[in-house]
Design a protein that fits this description.
Elements: E1 7-10, E2 14-26, E3 29-38, E4 43-48, H1 52-55, E5 58-59, H2 63-74, H3 84-97, H4 100-116, H5 121-142, H6 146-156
Antiparallel strand pairs: 1-2, 1-5, 2-3, 3-4
Length: 158
């Protein structure tokens, strides 16, 4: 159970802060929801409290783990399928997992592939989404501005 003020990650959406816990009636059913604000894009999301485990909501990483994420980004890319469809599905699974280190792998691998061979429109969009998810968690975990987090990642690939 999370509390107001907790910093959490919503897989596929990114990191945010729980602003409230409210009971709402939707489609005739009363449920309790976390109201989470995602700082990037200033979006609010309602998450049913009874689905938290199923959805994969988790606490954000610690400041120490930020360094591990950066190490993942610096490492050599992992072997990816040359088949676009398989590669896309494997990367999507990693992003859906909500595991920050797997999301960092996707960013690293797609960023490097883009520099070497270029990316399709679908993979370019996936890279952008994975980067946003990564940045949102770095911003809250390391208490830095979005632009600084973006520069940190971009500078690793120059």
């Amino acid at each position: 159970m999370f509390s107001v003020g907790d910093k959490v990650v919503y897989p596929m959406h990114g990191a945010g802060i729980i602003e409230a816990i409210e009971e709402r009636e939707i489609l005739g059913r009363r449920k309790t929801y976390y109201i989470m604000r995602l700082p990037l894009g200033d979006m609010k999301v309602m998450i049913p409290t009874d689905n938290v485990e199923e959805i994969g909501i988790r606490d954000i990483i610690s400041r120490e783990e930020v360094h591990k994420v950066i190490e993942v980004l610096k490492n050599d890319k992992t072997k990816m399928s040359s088949n676009w469809n398989r590669r896309y599905r494997a990367n999507m699974q990693k992003i859906k997992s909500g595991n920050i280190f797997e999301v960092a792998e996707v960013v690293r691998n797609l960023q490097r592939r883009d520099m070497e061979k270029g990316l399709s429109t679908g993979e370019r969009k996936m890279l952008s989404n994975a980067k946003q998810i990564l940045i949102s968690e770095l911003v809250l975990a390391d208490n830095i501005e979005e632009e600084k987090a973006r520069e940190l990642i971009d500078n690793l690939f120059e």
